[in-house]
Specification:
The complex is a heterodimer.
Chain A: H1 2-17, E1 20-22, H2 32-36, E2 42-44, E3 50-52, H3 63-67, E4 73-75
Antiparallel strand pairs in A: 1-4, 2-3
Chain B: H1 8-11, H2 28-42, E1 50-54, H3 62-65, E2 69-72, H4 78-88, E3 93-99, H5 100-106, H6 108-117, E4 122-127, E5 130-131, E6 137-138, H7 162-169, E7 173-178, H8 182-194, E8 199-204, H9 208-214, H10 220-230, E9 231-233, H11 234-237, E10 249-256, H12 262-285
Parallel strand pairs in B: 1-2, 1-3, 3-4, 4-8, 7-8, 9-10
Antiparallel strand pairs in B: 5-6, 7-10
The chains are: A alpha+beta, B alpha/beta.
C-alpha cells in the first residue's frame, strides 16, 4: 500500500515539476514566453534561452504555448 | 524530431521541413500560423480536404510548413490561383494566406473582385504594416506619418483599412484579430472557414525587425503588448464615439451577411445546361 502511494506521489510530483516543456532546438529566444507568463515560471539560462524554474507556480493558462511562434513549447498536462 | 513534442500544431507540420522556421525571433506570423492550425483542427477536417494558397512574402512562407494541399504562387496572385482551385474542386476548403503588400498592393484587384464575386474562399491577411522581407519599404497599410525605409521623413500617403475595403467590396464575413489575442483569432478563423461565401480575417501582427526598428517601437514583446492596449472589442466600440476610437482598431466579428455564393450559382448553370442537353437528346432519339 505504502509503496503504491509513494509511487503515485512521485508521479504527481514529476508531473507538477515539469508543467511545460521547451524544445530548445526550435527555440529562438524571443522571450515572448518569459515576458508574457503571468506567474513568471520562466527564467533564462546561460545561453539566453528560457528554462522552467518555478514549475510549481504554473496554472496551465496556455498563454506561453499559444503565443510561441516557433511551436517549441508544449504542455505536459493538456 | 516531431515525435518528441506532442501538441495539436505538430500534427499538421511537415515532418521533413527544417525547423526552426525562417521568420525572425518573435515574429507574429508564427502565432498566426498556430491559430490557423488550431482553427482547422477544431473543425475536424481531413488533411486532404484543405488547400492553403499563398503568394510571395514573409507570410507566404506559412504553407511551406503546413501538411495540407498547398500552393506557393506568384506575387499577389494567390487569390487568382485559389479561385481556380475552388472552381476545379468545390469540395475543398480553400484558404488564402497573404501579407499586406502581397494582397493589397500587387494583388489588390484580385482581392476586391474575389470579394465582389463572393466565392467561397477564406482569406487571411497578416497585416504588419510594412514590406518586411524586401527591406522595409512602405506598404498600402503603413499608417500616416510613420517611417519606412522608402519614407525616411514619414509616410505622406493615407493608408488602407483592409477590413473596410473588404466590407465595401462585398465580402460576406469580415473579422479582425490580433496575434496578442491568439485564442480569439483561432475562433474567428474557424468561423470564417465555416462561413459560406468570401470571408476575410485581418490579423494585426508585428514586424519589429523593420517597422519596429524604423519607428522605435521596441522589441517583439513590446509590439505584441501594444496590440493589447490599442485593440477595442466590437461590442465596446459600438458604444464609443468617433474621437475615442481614433488611432485604435476594432477587433472581433465586424460584418456578416448572406448572399448567393459563386460556386453554387455556377453549378446551377451547369445543371441547367445538362438538363437541356438531356431533353434535346431525348427529343432526337424519339
Amino acid at each position: 500500500m505504502a509503496d503504491t502511494e509513494k509511487v503515485e506521489v512521485k508521479k504527481k510530483w514529476k508531473k507538477r515539476s515539469d508543467p511545460v516543456v521547451i524544445y530548445k532546438k526550435w527555440c529562438k529566444a524571443c522571450f515572448i514566453c518569459v515576458e508574457m507568463c503571468p506567474q513568471k515560471v520562466f527564467d533564462t539560462d546561460r545561453d539566453g534561452y528560457p528554462v522552467v524554474t518555478r514549475g510549481l507556480d504554473c496554472t496551465q493558462c496556455s498563454i506561453c504555448w499559444l503565443h510561441c511562434p516557433e511551436f517549441a513549447i508544449t504542455s505536459s498536462e493538456k | 524530431m516531431v515525435e518528441q513534442v506532442s501538441n495539436v500544431t505538430h500534427k499538421y507540420l511537415r515532418p521533413k521541413k527544417t525547423f526552426p522556421n525562417v521568420w525572425c525571433p518573435g515574429c507574429g506570423i508564427g502565432i498566426a500560423m498556430g491559430a490557423l492550425i488550431r482553427a482547422i483542427d477544431s473543425l475536424n477536417f481531413n488533411k486532404d480536404d484543405v488547400s492553403v494558397v499563398s503568394g510571395i512574402g514573409c507570410t507566404a512562407r506559412i504553407p511551406v510548413y503546413l501538411d495540407f494541399n498547398t500552393l506557393h504562387t506568384t506575387h499577389g496572385r494567390a487569390i487568382a490561383f485559389a479561385t481556380g482551385v475552388k472552381l476545379a474542386n468545390p469540395k475543398l476548403h480553400v484558404i488564402v494566406i497573404s501579407g499586406d503588400g502581397d494582397l493589397l498592393a500587387i494583388g489588390g484587384n484580385h482581392f476586391i473582385h474575389a470579394a465582389r464575386r463572393n466565392i467561397d474562399i477564406t482569406c487571411i491577411l497578416v497585416n504588419n504594416y510594412i514590406y518586411g522581407m524586401t527591406g522595409g519599404q512602405y506598404s498600402p497599410t503603413t499608417p500616416f506619418a510613420k517611417n519606412a525605409s522608402t519614407a525616411p521623413y514619414g509616410m505622406i500617403e493615407q493608408s488602407f483599412d483592409p477590413s473596410d475595403l473588404a466590407k465595401s467590396s462585398g465580402a460576406t464575413y469580415v473579422a479582425r484579430g490580433t496575434v496578442y489575442h491568439a485564442s480569439q483569432l483561432s475562433r474567428l478563423i474557424s468561423q470564417a472557414i465555416s462561413h459560406n461565401g468570401f470571408s476575410f480575417v485581418e490579423v494585426i501582427s508585428n514586424c519589429h525587425t523593420q517597422y519596429g526598428r524604423l519607428n522605435r517601437e521596441g522589441s517583439a514583446v513590446k509590439m505584441i503588448q501594444w496590440q493589447k492596449e490599442y485593440a477595442v472589442p466590437a461590442s465596446a466600440a459600438a458604444r464609443m464615439t468617433r474621437e475615442e476610437l481614433e488611432g485604435k482598431f476594432v477587433t472581433g466579428k465586424l460584418h456578416e451577411v448572406f448572399r448567393p455564393e459563386y460556386v453554387s450559382e455556377y453549378q446551377k448553370i451547369i445543371d441547367k445546361f445538362n438538363e437541356e442537353e438531356e431533353e434535346n437528346r431525348q427529343l432526337q432519339e424519339s
